[in-house]
Amino acid sequence: MTLKSNAVTNNTTTQHIERLPALQHPLLNKFYRSHASRMRASPEAEAWVVRNPEIIAGLCLTAITEGYWLTGLLVAPEHRKHGVAQYLLQHTQQAHSNSPIWLFCHPDLIGFYQHTGFRITEQLPEQLKNRLSRYQKHKNLVAMHRFVEPASTD
């Protein structure tokens, strides 16, 4: 069963966000491959996609001890600069509004992620610290997070 969520009409087409069941993760992997990306949806991750009606964007959220780790955000080139990534990020943030989310990104993407509520951080869960350290040996990456705002006690 596919879990459907918010739909947005963009001029003449409708975009739907869906969380894919694990058995449909190969659809996201096929999308990644079709755009020459080495990204893959891991079996334990939540795979989220935007359809229009085919998959035009996707990302993965993997549960970690203290929240979620966001990986694999990719938008098809012909759909970039139209708010698709922001739409997908906002939805997944709302779906996990009570949990912090971390990600690693290239420095060129810091402004984009800051616009969607993420902040640069050096405070990472231990399992992500080790991973970032390994990745930084080969890539220039920055750690970012979106923490949950404490509930108001009015």
Structure description:
This protein is of the alpha+beta class and 154 residues long. It has one domain: Aminopeptidase. The chain has 4 helices and 8 strands. The longest helix is centred in the middle third of the chain and has 12 residues. It is globular and about 40 Å long.
CATH topology grouping? Aminopeptidase
* Dominant shape: globular
Q: Approximately what portion of the residues adopt beta-strand conformation?
A: 25-35%
Query: Secondary-structure element sequence?
Result: EEHEEEHEHEHE
- Overall strand count: 8
**Secondary structural class:** alpha+beta
Q: So, CATH architecture?
A: 3-Layer(aba) Sandwich
Helix content estimate: 10-25%
Euclidean distance between termini CA atoms: 40 Å
Give the C-alpha Rg: 16 Å
- The residue-averaged pLDDT reads 89
Using the coordinates above, name the CATH class: Alpha Beta
Summed up, the helix count is 4
Unreliable spans are: 1-5, 7-12
Strand order of the largest sheet: 1-2-3-4-5-6-8-7
Number of domains: 1
CATH superfamily name? Answer: Gcn5-related N-acetyltransferase (GNAT)
Most strands sheet: 8 strands, mixed
Topology summary:
Elements: E1 3-10, E2 13-20, H1 25-34, E3 46-51, E4 55-64, E5 67-75, H2 84-95, E6 101-105, H3 110-115, E7 119-120, H4 126-135, E8 142-146
Parallel strand pairs: 5-6
Antiparallel strand pairs: 1-2, 2-3, 3-4, 4-5, 6-8, 7-8
